[in-house]
Design brief:
Rossmann fold; 5-stranded parallel beta sheet; globular
Length: 149
């Protein structure tokens, strides 16, 4: 699978070393979290990074089709909630699972995320094992649903 790796506004085409490797879109405005996620996920997944909601939408409109989207909520200009609604408004993207990965720990935020259809809600900071297990579980459930259709 060809994918585009985007970090620090540089676009580099990469080749997956496996046809089985899934593609993740990670959206966060903080470099530390993008770098941390890259270290945790790069061996198992191809990753596209976006530093804003608009950049994420731009990648998707240009044809990037991830298997899962990890989306921060607290971002300038277009927060994660607005980004989520814009993503879900694009027909082809409607069924891509979105996981909110955020520093927002309020019960109301967690509840709201699930009410609007989020696949999961992961609070920062997170452990690598927790992140990997939860992503894998969602991707497995998504493939089972696709197989049954």
């Amino acid at each position: 699978m060809d994918s585009v790796y985007v970090k620090n506004k540089k676009r580099v085409k990469i080749m997956s070393d496996s046809k089985e490797k899934k593609l993740i879109l990670m959206v966060d405005d903080v470099d530390f979290y993008l770098t941390t996620a890259e270290k945790m996920l790069k061996d198992k997944y191809d990753i596209i990074f976006a530093k804003s909601g608009q950049e994420a939408i731009d990648h998707l409109v240009k044809g990037a089709l991830p298997d899962i989207i990890l989306l921060d909520i607290v971002m300038p200009i277009m927060d994660g909630w607005e980004t989520y609604y814009k993503l879900k408004g694009i027909g082809l993207l409607r069924n891509i699972p979105v996981v909110f990965v955020t520093s927002m720990h309020g019960e109301d935020d967690v509840k709201y995320a699930y009410e609007i259809g989020a696949a999961d809600y992961i609070m920062k900071p997170y452990a690598q094992s927790d992140l990997l297990i939860r992503i894998e579980k969602i991707l497995n459930n998504t493939s089972k649903e696709t197989d049954q259709s």
